[in-house]
Every structure is written in C-alpha cells, then in structure tokens.
Amino acid sequence: MNNFSYYNPTKVVFGKNTISKLSSLVPQGAKTLIIYGGGSIKHNGVYDQVINALSGREVLEFSGIEPNPRFETCMKCVEFIRENNIEFLLSVGGGSAIDATKFIAAAYYYESDNTWEILETSGAKIKKAMPFATVLTLPATGSEMNKGSVITKEATKEKRSFSSPLCFPLFSILDPQTTYSLPKSQISNGIVDTYVHVMEQYLTYPVNNQISDRFAESILITLVEEAPKVFKDPNNYDVRANLMWAATLGLNGLIACGVPEDWATHVIGHELTAFHGLDHGVTLAIVLPGVMNIMRDEKADKILQYAERVFGITQGTKEEIIDKAIIATQSFFASLDIPTRLSDVNLNETCIEPIIKRMVDRGWNLGENGTISPEKVRQILIDRL
User: Fold this and answer.
1) Quick one: pLDDT band at residue 53, thresholds 50, 70, 90?
2) Percentage of the chain with pLDDT > 90?
3) Which of 79, 125, 143, 367 could form a disulfide with 98 if both were Cys (CB 3.0 to 4.6 A apart)?
C-alpha cells in the first residue's frame, strides 16, 4: 500500500428534506449569492426550497452556468460579486455549477489578473478563496465533496482542471429527492461519470491495498446493480440515494488513499468535449474501453481482478478474460443508452490529430506510469472509431 495523507473538511448533510437546513448552515448575516445553471431548479421545486430556507436573508442570484462551465461566464460572475459585495456563495445544481463556483471562489481573490493561470498551474497558486457551499441536484462528479474543478475556455477550446485544499465546500446538502425530475440522459451521464471516476483510481496496478480496492469495487457493483432500477422505478428513493452517495464517494478522495491513479480517460475525454462539445459522460464511455484495450498489458492484473470481482468473469485465458471485461464495461455503458464509439457521435479519424497535437505541445504523457504517450492516445482513439 502506498503512503497517503487524507483530508476532507466538507460537511455532508444527506437525506430527505435537508434543504431546509440551509437556514442554520449558511452563515448568519452573510450576503449570499446563489449560483446555478439553466433554470431547471425553478421547475423542480429546488429553487423555492432554497429561497424559503434563506427567508429573511439578503440573497442574490447568478444563473446561466453551462453544462461544461465556461471561464468567460465565471468571470462575469466574479465581476457581479465585486459589484454587489457578496460574502458567501451557494451553488445549487450539479457538478458544473459546483465546479464553476469553486473557480469563482478562487478567482475572486486571485492575485494576478490572469485568472486562467489558475487552470494552467492546476491551482498551485491559489492562496485564498471565498467561502461556499452546495446543494446537489445531479449526482455525477463528486464535486460536492472534493477540492477539484474543471473549466472550459471557449475562446481557445481548452478544458482544464485545478484543485486546491482551499476549494472544498464548507458543506453540501444531498437530498436524493431532488434527482427525481432529471432526464434519462443526465442520469445516464452521471452514472458513467461516477463509474469512470472509480476506474481511474482503481484500474492501475496492484499495491496490496485491499480496503481501497474493495471500496472501489463496491461502488462499481452498486452502479451496475442500481442503474437499471432507476429507469424502471424512477421514484424509488433508495435507488436514488444509493446512486447519489456512490457519486460522492467515487471522488471524495477516499478510494484514492494509498493507490496509484490514472486519469488518462478524463484528460482525453476533456479534449473531445473542448473540441466537439460532447457530454462529459459520453466522452468517458467512448474512451475508457480504448484505454483498457491499448493498455491491457500494463493494467492486466487489475483488469483480471476487476473482471472477477465486479462482473464474475473467471473462465478463459488471460487475454479472453480481459476481452470479456472490456466488452462487459462497454455493454454496461450501452445499456444506459450512452454512445461508446466515436462513430456513434458522428466523429471520424479527422478528430484525432488536433488532440494529439495539443498533447505534444503540452508535453503530456498520461497514465499511472506516465506511459500513455501521444502515440498511445492516437491508438486509443483509433480503437474507438
């Protein structure tokens, strides 16, 4: 098992009707800004619950955060905060709204006018951030209980990430009932996102960390078991609760303790989103099977473990079991009506070279061993045509 240091100060308030607890959780007297996306929270009752809980407070709002939150929109929010002397931020929505809020919180105090530098330096130069909290309505990214964020710069078609211990939410409210009205596509994308988050921290190489491995496998198995139920019985609270908690645990740092991490699938997926506007979950479903196939030799031990423990695959040669594990993974994504090949989203080989060029320009070598070179990325994408 690798050495590790684990820190997570976010308070989680989980369960039915917990939005009402905002009245005691949001600092008294703080001028608060609600940050959200396209307005779905005004149709599903969440907005009204938040406003009622903050009754008597000075509350403003900023809407329009995109599904892949844009740097340009975030900076408009920063200016709004300065103009209105905001003291506390409350993100209401899914991972995009929360990621945007994290960037906004850091950008407000950033010492340089070049706030894109936050992304270019992966958050290393952040020295202060505004206090913020979240009300989660779309389980997927785990952003409600971690220090990371992903932001897209529309002007240059870049999608970059950063993290900082100063960007943990103070608290996050998780009421599974808020997810009842989500469209199927968002539920499916969220399940895929959670699944691949876990795989990025699990499908590497063995370090004899049975606890982190078993935690990771339990989340994967839960997703496989609960996913079909959520579409058959959309108002089943327990199913929704299991999916929401799985998403949070998938990226709150716990299963990363003492194990190597990959994240190549996410980096490649981010480029597909940046260049072509694909849903994040879709890019992950496309790329992960390719990473598993092209990197099968380095990842063989963990793929074999994954095959047996998650899907019960034990029969066949080593290569046959790996093939079956890749097919099972791809089939799970397909069962959610998520595309699993570039051709499924009308992309062909012409989409590959711009991604390779960007990787070369940045000097990126990805994966847990740093062995996923630009040429390997080319092979991965060709595999997914």
Assistant:
1) very high
2) 98
3) 143
For residue 306, the surrounding DSSP H or E stretch is helix 300-311
CA triplet 2, 251, 245: central angle to 5 degrees? 125
SS3 label, residue 57: coil
Q: What is the pLDDT of residues 94-143, one digit of tens each?
A: 999 999 999 999 999 999 999 999 999 999 999 999 999 999 999 999 99
- Report if pTM > 0.85: yes
Altogether, the residues listed in the chain come to a count of 385
Q: Name the DSSP class of 171.
A: E
> pLDDT (tens digit, 9 = 90+) per residue, 288-331?
999 999 999 999 999 999 999 999 999 999 999 999 999 999 99
So what's the pLDDT on residue 156? 93
Task: Please tell me whether residue 135 adopts helix, strand or coil conformation.
Answer: strand
The predicted-structure confidence for 319-377, as pLDDT tens digits, reads as follows: 999 999 999 999 999 999 999 999 999 999 999 999 999 999 999 899 999 999 999 99
C-alpha to C-alpha distance for 262 and 372, rounded to whole angstroms:
10
Cα torsion 110, 112, 116, 117: sign: negative
Residue type, 44: N
Residues 6+ apart with CB under 8 A from 318: 300, 304
Q: Which helix (H) or strand (E) holds 377?
A: helix 374-383
Q: Which helix (H) or strand (E) holds 140?
A: none
Cβ distance 10 to 41 under 8 Å? no
Contact present, 372 and 355 (Cβ < 8 Å): no
99 token code pair? 């990621």
Work out the angle between the directed axes of helices 280-294 and 184-202 (0-180°, nearest 10): 30
What's the CA gap between 121 and 259, in Å, rounded? 24
User: In the chain, what are the domains?
Assistant: 11-178 (3.40.50.1970), 184-383 (1.20.1090.10)
Are the C-beta atoms of 300 and 293 separated by less than 8 Å? no
DSSP lists the bridge partners of residue 91 as 35, 134
Where is 39: in which H helix or E strand? none
Cβ atoms within 10 A of the Cβ of 95, count?
A: 28
